[in-house]
Amino acid sequence: MRGTSRAVPCSKAMKVAAVACRWCGAKVEPPHVPADMYVVTHCANCGVGLTVPYPTAAQLHQAYGTWYRPDSGRFVGAGDWLLAAFRGRTARWVHRTSPQGPILDVGAGSGAMLDVFHRAGRTALGLERRSSRPDVRAWTIAESGDGWAAIVMWHSLEHLPNPRRSLKEAALGLRNGGLLVVAIPNAASIQYRVFGPHWLHLDLPRHLTHLSKDQLVAALEEDGLTVLMVSHVRGGQVVFGWIHGLVGRFPGHPDLYQALRQVQARESKAPIVPAIAAAVLVSPLALLLAGLEILSRRGGTICVVARRPASGTFRNIGGEAPGLNPEKV
Fold it and tell me: What is the pLDDT of residues 62-95, one digit of tens each?
């Protein structure tokens, strides 16, 4: 849910070869893609949105360059503090609602949630593509072992190259009665319908898969979990998604998200003053639209909480990977 939301450069090819759907594995014949652009197409079999052409490892490395999350911080003013505070609030909620035991944070970022879990006395491990923290590993979910009381996938599922497999691994990695907490951009939201390729939460090419609430819930139930809650509020940045999109409709198409980032953390140039002035102007309308969107159950982001049954056969998903005993992290 970070970065620019427009289509961005990839390769010079106009025709994209057929690919296997990242969600169901069916063959997908992508449309002709404009030169140097990524677009979203939909699998005819499962309906899930896919970023095409699939970015290569080198292209993803560039998309997650050192500018993406620099040590000096990403946002101007109190932006980083506010983001950490929101993540901390979410972590405290997860701590209160999940059973006793270790917690796995998939896509730990700067580790704001991990810090809260540790302060609460929880054993916790984070997964991230790179990090200098001793409690974060560059592992897959399967390599992280099993027996987790809770697994949090907070706006990370859409970044993963094998999202359906990762969701299955998460379901199997839970101990009996454990919770899986998943937050994603909602591809069936009103925001997406209104802003299309300029939607904040599209974030091409970092977001590889684009799911709706129904598609996520169906997958969780297919994996044997019981869905306890679907929230169109807890997923975060619902109001900001509207503000960002409305600001982008002003002359010159100001990019509010990039304007709010530190200079060294920007993907593109973005004047600050015009973007912030426009944001102040549209904020009341954005609040109204966000409220209507939430009431209609088509929020820009969603949070889904599911539980593994309290009884059943326990399965180890670590295979021959080194794995980890969560009790000894």
Answer: 888 777 777 777 888 787 888 889 999 999 999 9
Report CA-CA distances (Å) from 212 to 28, 219, 226, 329.
19, 11, 18, 34
**Amino acid occupying residue 311:** S
Domains of the chain: 19-312 (3.40.50.150)
Which helix (H) or strand (E) segment holds residue 28: the answer is strand 27-28
- The DSSP H or E segment spanning 307 is strand 301-307
Whether residue 126 contacts residue 80, with contact meaning beta carbons closer than 8 Å, is answered with no
Distance from C-alpha of 179 to C-alpha of 150, rounded to nearest angstrom: 5
pTM of the model: 0.88
pLDDT tens by residue, 153-178: 999 999 999 999 999 999 999 999 99
Locus of tokens 């360059």 = 65
Contact 52, 40 (CB under 8 A): yes
The strand order across the sheet containing 226-231 reads: 136-137, 124-127, 103-106, 148-154, 174-185, 301-307, 226-231
Give the other-Cβ count within 10 Å of 134's Cβ: 7
DSSP string, 194-263: HHGGG-GGG-TTT--EE--HHHHHHHHHHTTPEEEEEESSTTS-HHHHHHHHHHTTSTT---HHHHTB-G
